[in-house]
Amino acid sequence: MKNTLIITLLVFTNFLYGQNNVSEKVSESFNIDNRDRLDSIAKQLNYKGGDQIKVLTIFTINEEGNVVDIQARSVHPLFEEEAIRVLSELPKMPPAKLDGKTISQKYSMPIVFEIETESAKKQRLKKEEREREKKLKKEKN
Q1: Range of 54's domain?
Q2: Is 109 left (phi over 0), alpha (psi -120 to 50) or beta?
Q3: What pTM was estimated for this model as a whole?
Q4: How many distinct structural domains can be found in the chain?
């Protein structure tokens, strides 16, 4: 009963305080280096392209906007470590407010790592190359 209450409270407070903003920041911070690291972990553990690994996380955004007290649970400790690393690298976030006061707020958020297929990787690399070429053209002009 106690666990159910905690989970319900976390989901409710996430709804109130806009977890979508947090999940957007996580997605934005997941860059190419992170994808390569995830691919390395997946190969080490014999995952294939298209596989999805869910990591359940709980963390706090304190009064200063820092992400602290990160906990993760998944099928393998390497995925847990990766989720914790990604969350710990987030920039400062707007802290929650209650009655006009800044407060620490717990969040729960699943992170789903999807292992890239070879065809998706080729498409991504082509797209990134086109974007680099566009950027170089703009810098030359």
Answers
A1: 2-140
A2: beta
A3: 0.67
A4: 1
